[in-house]
From TrEMBL:
Record Pfam families: NDK (PF00334), Thioredoxin (PF00085)
Gene Ontology BP annotations: CTP biosynthetic process; GTP biosynthetic process; UTP biosynthetic process
SMART domains listed in its UniProt record: NDK
Lineage of origin: Eukaryota, Metazoa, Chordata, Craniata, Vertebrata
Domain Nucleoside diphosphate kinase-like as annotated: residue spans: 158-302
Protein family: Belongs to the NDK family.
Superkingdom: Eukaryota
Sample GO molecular function, one term: nucleoside diphosphate kinase activity
Region entry Disordered, spans: 300-328
PANTHER family reported for this sequence: NME/NM23 FAMILY MEMBER 8, THIOREDOXIN DOMAIN-CONTAINING PROTEIN 6
Record-given protein name: NME/NM23 family member 9
């Protein structure tokens, strides 16, 4: 309850044109998180905003939330799955950042805040911009003939995978830290959701392990508390996002991870099986199945066989699928 109050105090919710005009008239720099109703605001950015607010103070740095569907002025941002941050100073748009890229967000905030301080002190001109990147090609939603999104669709042009920050990492307060590391490693978090899994979901999710001795323990663990469910894509490098995420997690067993890949997430945040901090899909096909199960409101367009038309077992670099023990 306390954290919700903090978020509300940190980011003003702009839900009407009147509030939008009021935001434009604010002195200093305002960073607006423009979000879609179906995925909500960008949660990974909140900890960064709190840090910067503490460092620079509230006088000239403001944060706001605005749902694209609730304001006509944001109609061009509707149906876009990646987070969008608009920077306003003196009523003018001065910068845009797309994606939950914490280092880029921090740099842009500090640079624009310094520029606005200079304008206020010396009376210079602001460098207003237009968001030229807006086009129908940027959206991740499919659209009907009337131009409106008829379903929540993540385009196959952006390969996606599922990431789960498991209850053991969440209960130890490591979720935000892990999400920052994910972003710093070149992944984009398209959406993030915190919830506690049901037993029925997890039995279906891990049905390929139903005959194993550890199955019941795994299901109980995954239902023991809140998890963070993330849809990841990747903008840096040519490596398939599914393969890149599995490499970044490290070996399934945290003890093995600490020995073989000490910088991996499971080496840093896992303790012992099944408490290995994070989950990743085994391949592109499994990623689509898992995403469809845990994000039923999304329809993932995928007319391909696994990545690039390759046969099963040939996704990314490894041509041998991980064993069942490696997909917990």
């Amino acid at each position: 309850m306390g954290s919700r109050k903090k978020e509300a105090a940190l980011q003003v919710n702009i839900s009407t044109q009147e509030l939008w005009e009021e935001m434009l008239s604010s002195k200093g720099l305002t960073v607006v998180d423009v979000y879609q109703g179906w995925c909500g605001p960008c949660k990974p950015a909140v900890s960064l905003f709190q840090k910067l607010r503490l460092e620079v103070g509230p006088d000239l740095l403001h944060f706001a939330l605005a749902e694209a569907d609730s304001l006509d002025v944001l109609n061009k941002y509707r149906g876009r799955c990646e987070p969008t941050f608009l920077f306003y100073a003196g009523g003018e748009l001065v910068a845009v950042v797309r994606g939950a890229n914490a280092p880029l967000l921090q740099k842009t905030i500090l640079d624009q805040l310094e520029a606005e301080k200079q304008v206020l002190a010396e009376g210079g001109e602001r460098k207003a911009i237009k968001d030229e990147a807006l086009s129908d090609e940027d959206g991740c939603l499919s659209r009907g003939k009337d131009g409106r999104a008829d379903e929540d669709v993540v385009s196959s042009e952006k390969t996606c995978t599922l990431a789960i920050i498991k209850p053991d990492a969440v209960v130890h307060g490591k979720a935000d830290e892990i999400m920052v590391k994910i972003q710093e490693a070149g992944f984009d978090i398209l959406t993030s959701e915190e919830r506690t899994m049901t037993e029925a979901e997890m039995r279906l999710f891990y049905q390929h392990r139903a005959g194993e001795e550890a199955f019941e323990k795994l299901v109980r663990h995954m239902c023991s508390g809140p998890s963070h469910l993330l849809i990841l894509t990747r903008t840096e490098g040519a490596e398939d996002v599914v393969t890149a995420w599995r490499d970044f997690m490290g070996p399934c067993d945290p003890h093995v991870a600490r020995r073989e890949q000490p910088e991996s997430l499971r080496a840093q945040y896992g303790t012992e099986m099944p408490c290995n901090a994070v989950h990743g899909s085994r391949d592109r096909e499994d990623a689509n199945k898992e995403l469809a199960l845990l994000f039923p409101n999304f329809r993932f367009t995928d007319t391909e066989t696994p990545q690039g038309g390759e046969a099963e077992g040939e996704v990314g670099t490894p041509k041998v699928l991980p064993s069942r023990e490696d997909v917990a």
